[in-house]
Design goal:
Length: 253
Amino acid sequence: MSTNLKGKAIAVTGAASGIGRATAKMLAERGAILAIADLNGEALETVVSELKSSGAVVTGTVLDVRDAKKVEEWITDIVERDGRLDGAANLAGVIGPSTGISLIEDYPYSEFEFILDVNMKGIFNCLQRGGEGQKLASIVNMASVAGAIGMARNCAYVASKHAVVGLTKSAAKECGGCGVRVNAIAPGVIDTPMVRGLDTEIKDINIERTVSVMPMNRLGKPEEVAEVVCWLLCEGSSFVTGSVHTVDGGWMA
């Protein structure tokens, strides 16, 4: 099975931490030419420095994926610099402070709007702008197991991830004839700063309790999700599109 990414120009959002960071590192190790972006400029600079020190070809851009114009400018710059864009991993995402606390009737509207703007509209912007004049081989979007089920006290995140699944499948239907594949990943409980931040006494979320009912009985590693992203970006998955790949230790089995 081919996993060759050497010389491929690939864009990654949400690359400063967690799954995005692990994906950027893995892509660099496999020879990709990287354009990575994140809203956290300081953390992004650290990742760029680490990757460059390992010999990777990488540029970093502070980017708010909610801003369609800025997303378009970023992608245009990539194509002008590298001559093409072979793949994109749209991994930027957030979980709000009301997750695990607020019912729908009490959920702050501003937070609901913010989560959908980043998780859903951000991916819409990347999909829409990424297709302008480019012929990407593969696009991978960040969904979640929360895109397949309902979760109490988690309405905004769940709604946003259901939307990502719908966008992914719709884009795959539209792009198939152009040779562009569009898939999504659906991580379960992964050991990232975002997930660790949910595990507090005041939230109706307990990581250990969740892990205890999973067949593999442990947290996932960011690198285990990154492996799936890299596979979806490479030619080894050439007949895979419109799919949602769970990486959840069997949670959804």
